[in-house]
Amino acid sequence: MDITQNGTYTEAPGYFRRLTVADWLFAAALLAAALFALNRYGAYMDVYEKVILVLSAPTSAALGWHWKPVRWLMPAVALLSLGAIALYGGNLEAADNRFWLRYMLSSQSAILWMSVFFFLATLFYWIGLASRPPKATKEEPVQKHSPAGAAIGSRLCWGAVLLGWTGMMVRWYESYLIGADVGHIPISNLYEVFILFALITAMFYLYYEQRYATRQLGPFVMLIISAAVGFLLWYTVARGAAEIQPLVPALQSWWMKIHVPANFIGYGTFALAAMVASAYLLKSHGYLVDRLPALELLDDVMYKAISAGFAFFTIATILGALWAAEAWGGYWSWDPKETWALIVWLNYAAWLHMRLMAGLRGRVAAWWALVGLLVTTFAFLGVNMFLSGLHSYGAL
Hints:
Number of strands: 2
Largest sheet: 2 strands, antiparallel
Structural class: mainly alpha
Distance between the termini: 55 Å
Number of domains: 3
Strand content: under 5%
GO molecular function, one term: heme binding
Number of helices: 13
Protein name: C-type cytochrome biogenesis protein CcsB
Order of helices and strands: EEHHHHHHHHHHHHH
Pfam family, one: Cytochrom_C_asm
GO cellular component, one term: plasma membrane
Transmembrane segments: 21-41, 72-90, 110-127, 148-170, 190-208, 220-238, 258-282, 303-325, 340-358, 365-387
Strand order of the largest sheet: 1-2
């Protein structure tokens, strides 16, 4: 129900009645693309992969209806990716001979540009935070009054997301150019999942940036993304990690296509919540008081990010158990990665329980979310560095 100016109630239009012609055209284009892919490549898919492909259309449509920028991001990624594929012409060596592939659209080039854009976005967000905060008006949202640095940072972040997803799509195609038995979705090793982590974290941040009409959290969230990108670049140079490798037998499963993304949605949102928590702690101790959003807003973003991450991490844990049963014959083996995944899950389950049942707020919740980042980081990276087990294929 909606309230009119004279205080009377009126029936709010239903969800589908609020959709525009552009919304339905977007959904139709996604469905057509999914059906085309199914018709063209269905013979190479098993039934589970076909189901995932078909369900991706309504899922992506719902995302685009809820968050409008996705409606230009998806076509832009598709156009750049298809342009790169056309330039390859089925020959992987074209990446060294054709200008646009060598310097922009090959997977390594696009991911390098993504990295540069993320670093620059971090710099400009901090420049924006250091600038005198503008005054918002009722007529225009805060974003239109953001300092120039923050506005540039936001655009650079979007550019990084565009090029990062393009790089991932092109890398997927490049793996098949190496060999049909090598081709796989690019989420199988630390190099690829660090890219995935950076992109997911950035997209969730950009969503909250629009949802709450503030760019003042960008400097903090971009720090964790830049740290991930910095590790990615070191890992590429020191370990030659950008080279596409065949999948180990345990990863040759359709489960990987859904387990890993769900897992990293959890990791990304937990990291985002921790960086928002750091902003909360600064403001609650009297720092950057006039530069940061209200404590209530920071608390709300922290709660919603952890809630979303916990839901996806729970799904990922269940999917991981099902995958383990298929690959290793048992749902749970107390492997170090499984054990630390359980610790992460219990940590955030306790955080949400205390929030919902005991009204946990304030500095205690913020410190808990910040410490949670350390726990999550060890589960994500530390296990691979210091422990060994069934998941040792992700080792440094």
